Amino acid sequence: MQRLLLLFLICINLHAVAAPPGAIVLWPGAPPGGAAPGPQRDSAKGSITQVEQPYLIAHRPAQPNGIAMLLVSGGGYAHIEAGKESGPTARWLQAQGVTAFELVYRLPQEGGGVSAPFQDGQRAMRVIRARAAEWGIDPARIGMLGFSAGAHLAGMTAVQPDAARYAPVDAVDAVSARPDFAVLLYPVLTMQAPFDTTHAKKQLLGRRPVQAARDALSVELHVDARTPPMFIAQALDDPIAPPENSRLMAAALRRAGVPVEVHLFQHGGHGWGLGKPGSEPAAWPRLLLAWLQAHGWMAQPAG
User: Fold this and answer.
1) Which DSSP helix (H) or strand (E) runs through 4?
2) Where in the chain does DSSP place strands (E)?
3) Which residues, in sequence order, are bridge partners of residue 80?
4) I need a surface site. Which of 89, 186, 226, 252 has the fewest CB within 10 A?
5) 269 Rama sector, left if φ>0, alpha if ψ -120 to 50, beta otherwise
6) What is the torsion angle, in degrees rounded to the nearest 10, for the CA atoms of residue 116, residue 118, residue 121 and residue 124?
7) Residue 75 neighbours by CB distance under 10 Å
8) Is the distance from CB of 61 to CB of 95 less than 8 angstroms?
9) pTM score
């Protein structure tokens, strides 16, 4: 039996790991509400589950330009696709002089409950801002970038940065969790029918949630004038997250007078990360840099 179990684990390419060396653990003790029993598991492709203690992976450039981004991979709130989303993007941002942090957060069905990922998102923003001077970061130039369900987590943090999601645990929690800008890529944002077909919605709310629960986690319903500027990109042929996620969010931001730039690609599907070379979505990193420069968060290149 033990030999069969070992073979099974090898076949599904899973191995147990602790937080990697140098990781920045978010909570000084046990995270609020609990966590997965652990140990954390990473697939061969970098998909993470069983997060026992959420943490940040820092990618610090040799010459930081003062801007920082918190990266949140997707995975439908059932796993974290760091291997193809936050990891490659963090390394690309680092090459641009951006201090990038990958967030490894708790999943709602693994012990921490529905609030767990949102608690981790808030806490991560506060940790980065509280230690900004140490890392050469301007505390007024910290953004949040999310992919798919990670964009939902980023979006909820952006529209409700002051929500009392957990009792303060130390001085870090007196620091603002509001990102100065947010980047949402092939995002899951709304929990409203008929666009509520995502796995993220099922993980968070189940199959038949009451309307109040849908409203509470529909990002577009919580936009106000204090919501930070946003950059949104999605493909119109996305088979996972309906493009209405982006359209509804953009409309809400415009009604509130919040700057938003939206790029809807004709083709690209879902889960493209940095984008396959030659594809339409592969343009988003260049478009993002231009947007950051236009808003003054990032300096124009010399020459």
Assistant:
1) helix 2-11
2) 14-17, 24-25, 40-43, 47-49, 55-59, 68-72, 80-81, 99-104, 142-147, 181-185, 230-235, 260-265
3) 48
4) 226
5) left
6) -50
7) 22
8) yes
9) 0.93
Q: Are the C-beta atoms of residues 72 and 42 closer than 8 Å to each other?
A: no
Q: In degrees, to the nearest 5, what angle opens at C-alpha 268 toward C-alphas 267 and 269?
A: 110
Distance, CA of 292 to CA of 179 (rounded, Å): 14
